[in-house]
Amino acid sequence: MPFNILRLGQALSPRVSPNTIKKGCEIMPVVASAKDSVMVVTYQIGLTEQGSPKLSQRSFPNIKSTSSDQDVYDVAAALYSLQDYPLISVRRDNRVDLTP
Q1: Count of beta carbons in the 10 Å neighbourhood of residue 30
Q2: What are the extents of the domains in the chain?
Q3: How far apart are CA 58 and CA 40, in angstroms?
Q4: In angstroms, rounded to a whole number, what is the distance separating the alpha carbons of residues 100 and 90?
Q5: CB within 8 A of 56, min separation 6: which ones?
Q6: Which of 37, 40, 68, 100 has its CA 20 to 30 A from that of 93?
Q7: Over residues 56-80, mean pLDDT
Q8: pLDDT digits (tens, 9 = 90+) for 28-64
Q9: What is the DSSP code string of 21-90?
């Protein structure tokens, strides 16, 4: 039986939360399980001819989902303190498995 996902803006009854999906006539809650994270680092590799920053990104997969945001940032800062390129930003992308 295919899943019918509730559409945005669809009126929900008070007993249905946005974290539910419909399977036929039965409403099933969605269970989110943390999988892992990806650390995405943006750094400056130089300047363009117009003088604006030329940026590059690097992804570091398989970051433990239990790592704190501060630890992830500290690792990125420590790695890029060893580089010639200045660190511009650090982003954390969390991956989550969703199951009914």
Answers
A1: 13
A2: 34-95
A3: 6
A4: 32
A5: 42, 43, 44, 45, 85
A6: 100
A7: 95
A8: 788 999 889 999 999 999 999 999 999 999 999 999 9
A9: EEETTEEEE-EEEEEEEEEEEEEEEEE-TTSPEEEEEEEEEEE-TTS-HHHHHHHHHHHHHTSSSPEEEE
